[in-house]
Fold these 4 entries.
Entry 1:
Amino acid sequence: EKTGRIMDSLKDLPHVICARICCRVFNCHPEKFTFELAQRISEWCDFSAGDPFRIEVETWFILPEEITHAHARAAQLLIGRGINVYANVPLIAGVNDRPELIENLAHALREARVEFHHFYVAGLAIQDRFNGSALPDADLVVEIASRVRRNCSGRQIPLYIVQTGSGETDFGF
């Protein structure tokens, strides 16, 4: 209800046309996205031609095996009501730093109808903890990007992002 009130107040601002809800619950407990919840979230949307207002759900994944049929069902419920679901993925050394693993993750996201949005190559706190503060080997990032572009469809191709103190920046592809 609190989120609904915030969305209603955002709709009153003419320059705001979309709100993205960052949602760990989608990752950890997709079964909580019931028909009723999806319907409630969709009520925050306004699909009018004059002043549209969209809602998006953003979540995070690291490995392809995290994505289940429950994620696909939850995404389908939301997409069916005009709410896109996006996934961000951090590159973590020794965990998901193999091109074939990221390709499998892209395929799993596609099957679940979740759009692969951003692939964070460096700069997030979790990456600083596992990878250190140095950027990953650029050749690895190029190899991952090449494999994903070669073997995946358009919706499976993310933006490659570095998080900096000034915000997000494109890795440079």
Entry 2:
Amino acid sequence: YPELFLTDDKDLIHYLIDKNDQYRSHGKRIEMGVHFVHPDEVSVQSLEIISSMVQRGIQVYVQTPYLNGLNTDGETLGRLFTLLRQAGVKIYYIFTPCSPIHGTREFWTPISKALEAQAWLRDHVSDRSIPKLCTATPLGKIEWHTSGFAVEKDAEDGAFTWIRTPYTLSY
């Protein structure tokens, strides 16, 4: 909703930039998280708003949910993250939903699909346009491909992957 930032002669943008200037004099800064799911959501106006904030020292980062039927392939995600990165956005997380949250099951995608999309990104876009892949589970947030997490294919069924974390008894 870029129009929220563009009303009243861009007062909200000016307020955030002024506050950030005050905080920077104390060694701090404003960070802003944005959420985009698909490159079709990225408008010229939103890119201009993001760029103006980044140019004035406000860190803007994106967290994206990986949603079945919306952004499950690497090419779509590559376009999304490349657009945002060009505006100065820090590409942070992409979450593959696996949590038992009411009403989200239709968006679940196998982790293997998320890993395929991540591999596509690794092969086709700049490292700075690749988010950390995370899974929200009842055990907590799991970051894939980081130290501390053992991941292995199931010996009997390669379609399944075992996750061992510091939160599991068998770690």
Entry 3:
Amino acid sequence: MHADQIVPIKYSLATHLLKVVVALYLLLTVILTSIHLYTEFSRTKARVMQELQVIQETFAPGLAKALWDMNLEQLQPTFLGIVHYPTVIGVKLLNEQGAEVGAAGIVTDEQGEAVQVNPEGKKGPVKGYSGIFSSTAPILHSRKGKQLTMGKVIIYSSTGIVFEMLKPGFMLIMLTTLIKIVAVW
């Protein structure tokens, strides 16, 4: 070979193959990282839903008693106690006819829009709040060996809470992904 026939390194077959391998690695890394993040999000949301169900079971007897006794003043402290849980943004109690008896925090209205309920029970719109999900459970009262349905409780959470719970793990995943990409490059 003559010196004028040598192919520059940037046009060589080895350079092209290296670019293809790195591009495939980057694509595979992005796909697998996305799948991992989606799986972690789903798992964390399921944990939040389980926690909402535990909260419902914990407070259901008190809510049933308040509904049975028609002691609506007893509801507000209970609502405020429920809303203080880190995974809860709001709570709503409906009677057996489906009419709202009380609410606290951020809940959805009849149109599915997010509204903020202040301590006095007045509702106002919440701008830019989305990703609300809820868990609903019946409120049952035992009377003479029978279970009477008194209404239902809806406890609300949001994807924002799920993302906050995921943030430390997300940062670790992104850091390790970045280190792998730099190492391959």
Entry 4:
Amino acid sequence: ALREWGRDLAGALFASLPPVEQRWQYRALAGKSASVNPWVLQARPSSDGVTTEFLSSLPRGEALTGTLRSPPFRIPRNLAFYIAGHRGFPDKPLTGDNFVQLIDAETGEVLARSPAPRNDLAQAVAWDLTAHAGKRGHIEVTDGDEGGGYAWVAVGRFAPRLVTVPDISPDVLETRR
């Protein structure tokens, strides 16, 4: 009876996970120390006064690093989103380690890129993707800054909603898996 119950429980747990092709996927960065997925859902305010859930690398500690990749989608003519975060201490030179980018799913080419705005309040970004419309692509959010402060990035509120912030935090999905 316990084995049957365990089998049923494990089956229900796996059934609760979205299919792999519909999940944001975490990747550790080569040469960086983090082996822990830093990405979680976090309620963040935006510059227009709206507070919503963002994918964020802040709550687990600013020294953690990694890349989170969205499921693939058909690239629209325009893509807008909000981004918050930092690229090093304010009195130091900017780092290029925290950013959001659009990648061509076939070639791996970077089609658009926006750095963290050095602001806790999420700022609006709009990409004109007319030259790439119709291709398949995915969003990558990278926190590559191992610093102990001012070293995080958060992204959310994608429009059109071809890319969405998941309902379940990436760290919860990993734990369930």
